[in-house]
Amino acid sequence: MQNFGAAFGDAFRLLGGFDPALMEIILLSLRVSVTAVFISALIGLPLGAILGVSRFRGRAAVLVLLNTLMGLPPVVVGLLVYLMLSNAGPLGPLALLYTPGAMIIAQSILVIPIVAALARQTIEDMHAEYDEQLRILGVGRWGMVATLLWDARYSLLTAMLAGFGRAVAEVGAVLIVGGNINHVTRVMTTAIALETSKGNLALALGLGLVLLLLAIVINAAVMGLRATAARSAHA
Amino acid sequence: MKRIRRAFISAAAIALCVLGGPALAGENFIIVQSTTSTQNSGLLDDLLPRFTAMTGIEVRVVAVGTGQAIKNARNGDGDILLVHARAAEEKFVADGFGVQRFDLMYNDFVVVGPAADPAQVGGTADAVAALRRIAAANAIFASRGDDSGTHKKELSLWQAAGVDVSAASGTWYRETGSGMGATLNTGIGMGAYVMTDRATWIAFGNKGDFRILVEGDEALFNQYGVIMVNPARLRSPKIAWSRAFMDWILGSEGQAAIAAYKVDGQQLFFPNARRGS
């Protein structure tokens, strides 16, 4: 039986030696998931903020739906995006299937609800606190959305990190729409699935550790940025 | 305030560098829809760079079960189909999705199982009799259950053995619904017999105490075929590239490269293309 010691050994040998194949896979993972999170932030943050400050009929139903979409099964999203992007599908002519672009689309669909739902809660809470003040200052609806988003930017970073965690860890969607093609669409999670299916369990676990390490670095970097920015704001 | 803005701007700049990074590969490529066995055994990783080095045409492989590979190719999401289920391949061509089917290479299937061999099938050369014995002993058998070439072959053997596995599904007959490697991992975890292609087994890294118990029966022959997708369904540059690929893999160089691929000193695939026949 292969063991954990071998897994750590494999992981650090690859990482320490800057194994070019591994570096390529890590960079693609980052490129795809970071892009997906940025797209999700561009769409999800305003969407969440607008929902947070608005009151309309059926709002409760919309919120239930949005919160439910946070649990979208990646395989289902992968299948939907595949059917859209396939040459037999409506968006076939874009020739996006089996490219990083397809993977970014699939992950964005998974992450937008997470960013929007968490942003909605944050903005709604802040809105309750500052509504009167902003009204007295004569700030309109859109000004209010922009102000609250800016004031909540650090809390919203956490929402984006939650989205990044979802994106970088999922395998079901990127496997279907990316195809796990070597040098083109192979990312950390699909590489782990492939090594597992080859029976190279130690290597698969090693890659898992590298992925975890990557997530730690990203999270630490964002927290560090946040702390630096917060400190200078009070200076 | 200024420093905050600078921090955000630098964060955005870093992000843009990641997003706008260069395209990872060239534009001259074809997509091969293939099976997990050809990829997991390492054959394609060895073979395709030779073709790319010679022609400058990149070959991108999507490795799934034969059933899914054929469906993907039917949807037009591939230029070449390289699988192992003759009847399904011939139907693919007959339905107008492919040009012509060619034999490419072969190896064979084997039945692997735990060293303890609870159904006592070790050393049997008769695959059908071995399966009958596994069923009679209610010994656990892990099946792909995914409409792959291996799964189709296994079902045909059960049928020949007169065993109704769908009735036994969930008891001693366990359908994993996943690829060859995943099924081997599961089977080894459960101490179950598994039918696998020899190439995947030889290259597999998690064998535990499992060994080959049944092999050498003609019924276990495993023929791979290669089909170019109907040019009417391809974008124009892909037609010439796909033809070049077919010529290469069915020609002497491709065939020699297949024969030369070895894992642990063992040849995994045996080329047998007969072009023009």
So what's the overall shape of chain A? globular
Number of domains of chain B: 2
Biggest sheet character of chain B: 10 strands, mixed
- Second CATH tier, the architecture of the largest domain in chain B: 3-Layer(aba) Sandwich
CATH architecture of chain A: Orthogonal Bundle
* CATH topology tier name of chain A: MetI-like fold
| Largest sheet report of chain A | none
The structural class of chain B is: alpha/beta
SS strand fraction of chain B = 15-25%
Q: What is the mean pLDDT of chain B?
A: 90
Please state the overall shape of chain B, judged from the principal axes of the Cα atoms: globular
Q: What would a concise description of this structure say?
A:
The complex is a heterodimer of chains A (235) and B (277). By secondary structure, chain A is an all-alpha fold. Chain A has helices at residues 4-16, 20-53, 59-69, 74-85, 100-136, 141-151, 153-169, 172-178, 188-197, 201-234.
Overview of the molecule:
The complex is a heterodimer of chains A (235) and B (277). Chain A has one domain (4-234): MetI-like (MetI-like fold). Chain A is 79% helix and 0% strand. Chain A contains ten helices and no strands. Chain B is an alpha/beta fold and 277 residues long. Chain B is 44% helix and 22% strand. Chain B is built from twelve helices and twelve strands. In chain B, helix 6 packs across helix 7 (149-161). Chain A binds chain B through residues 1-2, 24, 27-28, 30-31, 34-35, 38, 86-89, 92, 95, 97-98, 100, 179-184, 194, 196-201, 203, 225, 228-229, 232-233, 235, and chain B through 1, 3-4, 7-8, 11, 15, 18-19, 21, 24-25, 31, 36, 39-40, 45, 60-63, 72, 74-77, 179-182, 184-185, 203-208, 233, 235.
